[in-house]
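Subject: Protein record for review, amino acid sequence with backbone structure tokens
Category: Structural biology, sequence-to-fold work with a learned token vocabulary.
Format: Residues in single-letter code; tokens as whole numbers, each standing for a residue.
Body of memo: The sequence and its backbone structure tokens, given next.
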Amino acid sequence: MLDRLRAMDRDTAGILGVLAVALVIAIPLVISGPGNDLDVGNVFRSGRAIARHLDYVPSRPPGAPVHESLVGIGDLIGGPLVTNLLSLLAAGLLLWQLDRLLRDEGVAPAGRWVIALLAVNPWFLIAATSTADYVFALLFLVVSARALRHDHAVLAGVAGAAAMGCRVGSITLLVALAVAEACVGRSHRRRVLVAGATAGALTLVVFIPSFIEAGGLTFAQNDFSASSPLVQLGRTVAKDILVLGIPTTLLVLASIPALVAALRRWSTSWLVRFGAVGLVLSQVLFLRFPWKMAHLLPTLLCIVVLLAVALEERRRWLMAMVALQLVFGFVRVDVIAPNDANQASGGTISPTVTAGPVLTDWRCRRHDPDAYLGRQKEEIERAWDCAAPYRD
């Protein structure tokens, strides 16, 4: 018993130490402008119209009314610094709620090192310090999961609708939640129906402003073209590798036997069901739209959930991944280069060592912290191109 308590203390102290390091890394990003996301300028315009004029103009189809409203209020209070701090707060709450979820589901203390792994992932750090909706959507998703597990179906539905109101792509992980819970038993299926009905009804309400502004259902139409299946797959695989970086990806691949063993617990592990279904669905969506690295954060969440189960007794594996993620933020190793920086249809083998995503993003923010105030094609897209790893 004493040995177990010492191990718990050691794990908790180590995780908190890494979270402190992540916060130190985050501070320069938070104070260096609202980030280089391609939609940041339009999000501010939408938020300002909501908070200052009670008018709604979606930042992009189909809109993100919940996040845009939060940005409008934060911007009214204190500008980009406050909106960035709101993202950082959402990230902190997400990590806390995820830790509670893992603890509720019986994951060993060593397995909760995945909280540190998520916290120091460069793409998560960038999203958590930008005026962007990614971490808000994941926060509401995890809150919905915890509410569902504690038989608060209506609250789960409200949180699910909030996640949809931040990013409609949240539907992939909401479906994963429903599948994971419905497999428990009949009473849990009733819980899922109540939560689903609540989330569906409130999501319709949330998007009424988009419907009114568009004058119909055109706000929900997708006119984004796709390349050939092979090109789509190539872009997806290249960015899948980049989400963790090559060294950490190799460690994850080495963990495949443990992951396969974890999948055998499908019938008894809620986390395995959620992680596996969410991973597949989020990857299918990204295969159709293999664009921003931040679009892979739902995939990353599912990976860390599965690793928490598969490696819950292998602390050193998870600690090694955390260390590699810290390095990856500042030093990036590549082996593939796209053949066209804007419309890649292939690539070449080209081993390189460059600045990592966090360092690159910070440099680009410092170079033009007010790019979000400029024109979309000139200032905003130039800042995006500066920070984007693959511009395809």
